[in-house]
């Protein structure tokens, strides 16, 4: 019986065997992606303070992943909101910040050894900021064009059948044998999208889960892979190849696409990390030479932890008391390292060169 996008795909097949997934082209691409990930994993050690990477790079991933779901905010609004998540901001920016929160929450779980498909619920709960469960019986969703009413895919019905599929996916991911971890990640990403376990938030949840699985598999130490950037650049191919698996069982081209994404994204992110390292060293030397009386390694690291800084950050870091902290930031601005902006009663200092490196 031909595939009908209007009928719930309750007969969604299991992920194929290792022999089917690990074709010669896939293994070759997997090797290249693994090498690129190894380079990225090593590049993290180039930055003296890992907080710089954990704060700044996931914020970019949050912005891009949310854009795939048409949740758009400006770079400026996002960075300013990240300074104080309790401050009033627009709903889109709040959603993007929740993505970063969900990523951090999942990262803490995985590093504590708590990895399973149940992590999907935790991620989606943080994303949506409400109680979330896998779709129950009668909770049906459709994928398509809301304006035209065209349905392109109907996921399996909620309830026991959906949970059985997730349990099977959990066994696939945690099995002691099976395909290479990168191939498992790519195959699992399709399966999560096809199962569509939640009413809303499936795409973003699945993309966070990708990163966490790579950390669980020891391929990354921290969540710094910008896979959403690649998906945005190749959005039409992404959805076409997802449909290719659903309609034609074309796993090979889907896996090749995802592995290419991992390789290109890892190489690009490694270049970003090296650029941050070079900028950090250049900034350190500039500050040491021009402001020897106030220079400290801790002060330079602080203005790199995120691209925007405030006087209270200097105080909370134990670097100086409030009045002195204000002088320090003003002096850093006087030599061109920071730029001040007035927002209400607050003065916010931006690190323009760091913003450029992160967003170019």
Q: From the coordinates shown, what is the CATH architecture of the largest domain?
A: Orthogonal Bundle
How many domain regions?
A: 2
> How many β-strand runs?
5
- Class of secondary structure makeup: mainly alpha
- Rounded Rg: 22 Å
Shape: elongated
Q: What's the pLDDT, averaged over the residues?
A: 89
Main sheet attributes: strand count, strand direction, barrel closure: 3 strands, antiparallel
Q: What fold name stands as the CATH topology of the largest domain?
A: Fic-like fold
Instruction: Provide the spatial order of strands within the biggest beta sheet.
Output: 3-5-4
* Low-confidence parts: none
**CATH homology group of the largest domain:** Fido-like domain
End-to-end Cα distance, whole Å, is: 48 Å
Helical residues, percent: 55-70%
Return the CATH class of the largest domain: Mainly Alpha
Which H/E pattern describes the elements?
A: HHHHHHEEHHHHHHHEHHEEH
Please, how many helices?
16
Which range does the strand content fall in? 5-15%
């Amino acid at each position: 019986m031909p595939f009908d996008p209007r009928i719930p795909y309750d007969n969604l097949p299991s992920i194929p065997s290792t022999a089917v997934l690990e074709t010669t082209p896939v293994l070759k691409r997997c090797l290249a992606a693994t090498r690129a990930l190894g380079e990225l994993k090593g590049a993290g050690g180039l930055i003296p303070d890992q907080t710089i990477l954990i704060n700044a790079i996931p914020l970019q991933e949050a912005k891009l992943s949310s854009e795939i779901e048409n949740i758009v905010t400006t770079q400026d609004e996002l960075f300013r909101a990240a300074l104080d998540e309790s401050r009033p901001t627009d709903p889109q920016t709040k959603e993007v910040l929740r993505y970063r929160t969900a990523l951090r929450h999942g990262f803490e779980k995985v590093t504590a050894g708590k990895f399973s498909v149940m992590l999907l619920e935790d991620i989606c709960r943080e994303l949506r900021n409400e109680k979330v469960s896998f779709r129950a019986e009668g909770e049906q969703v459709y994928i398509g064009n809301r304006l035209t009413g065209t349905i392109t895919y109907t996921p399996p019905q909620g309830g026991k059948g959906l949970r059985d599929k997730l349990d099977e996916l959990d066994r696939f991911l945690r099995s002691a044998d099976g395909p290479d971890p990168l191939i498992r990640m790519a195959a699992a990403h399709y399966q999560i999208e096809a199962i569509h376990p939640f009413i809303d938030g499936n795409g973003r949840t699945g993309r966070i889960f990708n990163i966490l699985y790579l950390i669980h598999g020891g391929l990354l130490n921290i969540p710094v892979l910008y896979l959403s950037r690649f998906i945005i650049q190749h959005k039409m191919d992404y959805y076409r190849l997802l449909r290719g698996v659903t309609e034609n069982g074309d796993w090979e081209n889907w896996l090749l696409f995802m592995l290419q994404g991992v390789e290109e994204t890892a190489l690009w992110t490694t270049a970003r990390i090296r650029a941050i390292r070079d900028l950090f060293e250049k900034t350190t030397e500039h500050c040491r030479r021009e402001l020897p009386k106030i220079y400290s390694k801790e002060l330079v690291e602080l203005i790199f932890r995120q691209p925007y800084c405030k006087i209270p950050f200097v105080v909370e870091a134990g670097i100086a008391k409030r009045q002195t902290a204000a002088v320090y930031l003003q002096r850093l601005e006087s030599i061109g390292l920071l730029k001040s902006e007035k927002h209400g009663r607050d003065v916010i200092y931006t690190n323009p060169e760091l913003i450029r490196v992160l967003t170019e």
